[in-house]
Structure prediction request, 657 residues.
Amino acid sequence: MCDNAEIGTNASSSEERARAIFGARADMYTTSVPHTDQQVLGRLVEIAGPKAEWRVLDIRTKNGHTALAFSPHVREVVGLDSTEEMLREAWTPTQERKIENVTDDMNGGGIMRTQSGRALLPAAFLMVILGICAVTALGFTRDQLISDARQLAAIIEEAHPDPFLRCGGRIAFCRQLDDVLNAIPETGMTRDGFIRLIRPLVAIVGDSHTAIWDSYRVSGSRPGGIPLRFGIVEQSLYVAGVNDAADRRLYGAILISVEGVPVAELIERQRRLAACENVYDVLEELATNTLWHAPYLKDLLPEWTDSMRVMVELRLPMGEVETVSYAVPTLVRRTLRPATQAPVPSVGQSGFGTFFIDPLGAGKEIAYIRIDHQGGFREFLEENSSAGANDTTPEERARVASATEAFRDLTLAMVEAETETLVVDLRFDTGGTDTMSDILVYFLYGLDGLATYRTDWYSHGGFSAMRYSAQHFLICANQTIDQINEGRAGVPLRVGDYDFEDYAEAGDALLAEIEAIGATAAFADDYAGASTFYAEFVTGAGAGTYCPPNVLVLVSPTTFSSGSTTMKALSLNGATLVGTPSGQSCRAFGNGTMWELDHTKIQGSVSRSYFDPYPNDPARGEVWPVDVPLTYEYLAATGFDRNAELLLALEWLEARN
Prediction:
């Protein structure tokens, strides 16, 4: 092997001429459109699929555009170039933007690093060229993207119960599609660019269950947005967690604006980018996704031109207003949050757990159910397998926690302990299937409680409608339209038709059926797919096993879909709701079914059902009220405790008793 000195001696005069040429043109590369195109750079990162532990070598780095694009996603990037002027150009903007993890070593052979560390190769190896054609990097042709856009519109039109209800009609929807089609450039687009383009088309439907599942390519360790974690209280966003210990003074600060754009305007913009159910759902999307991840924040703030810094305006707990500017992307190691006076247990993959806890250390236990989602328990898998969706084996299902068994054991244990208080924590419950709601109500409130929750909306003139589209049968492969028509009165349904059996008159029929044959016989068929619960339900042995005098339900804007169904089921049976209202409206679309676009393979969901349980009470239809709301004043009094809802619930209960 030759040593570095020997390689340097044998360097040809052509290399020197190349240095002179590129040195003279160095400043041109700083603003060159082909070299600074974020779409192309983003596609390069997407193709590579970088991991946080990687060290990346960028040979012939020029002005460092590619190195900086990879920097947020990996441990280290080393950029090599034989032209000193190029590296000077690369170094200067990083200082102007205050990118803190970039260093240079001009005396070490023409090296720019995005993390401290030794160089991997000397500059003499720099004649090796790595290039990727920009057209290839864009990924998808115009014809492919037009086809996918038309496919998406067709899926929405053919599968959704009423895609034009909230968007101003069919013409408005088709106008949005036309805008999408004509915005696709001749050169094609990246996958992320196409997602950005179709987001408003999906959002215009105004249905959170009709959504794009595929997110932009974001970094978990360097999300690139505002390095603060926001929570929701009343109708405000407040700082609930920070990345840097120096920012702990910001705990509880209310967000006023981002890059000079007031929160009220951010809310309106968010509605146009992603369909949301109510204002709490909008705030939830801002807090958990848009403000945290740079690609979404850029969609929200087109005026955010310096993506290396972001400015936020906050009102601190004592009332003073402070503007904070952050260099981004920031490395996120862990989120720091205020200490809690009332720690609670976590749950595993099943999404739920039952416990006895003494949250205040007062020597008095309460029963505690935590549900983070309703899509990981055994009965959910049984129903899916029965319908032909996401099939699993009996052995696999047997290893998964059963809601029937867990709630039966808990209620029996509460009987033995003479438990007075049960807390059901739904603050993190993003949904799944309503069957968990039914199982819990069955053991707590019995068949009467189940009938109360399942027939309430009929007494208010409520209804629902289900559409059996081709997309439905594509996912539910074990179901056919002939099976659905079995036992139905009237004209048989065809693929694409609606099932209107859940209208108010159906409620009268259901109530009459319950009166005639009992709730067990009336509801049994509904649970046939969930075999573990069905075996319990038909016997009725555990119906109404035990319900303590005090049932407190903790809720938040995250409480969504089937999570909100559980919330309403408990509320209708007398439980007390504590916290901030759910982001899920009662008057909503739901029962989402999956779709995938042919070329980009982007996936998402489209609703199959429409629900309007309270047509004569629009306010209740949009936001289900809580009984004991969490206020900013109370939250501040707890020191912005992350379990303030539990503290409030127990304090309220003590005051009432």
Notes: Residues 1-14, 93-137 have pLDDT under 50 and may be disordered.
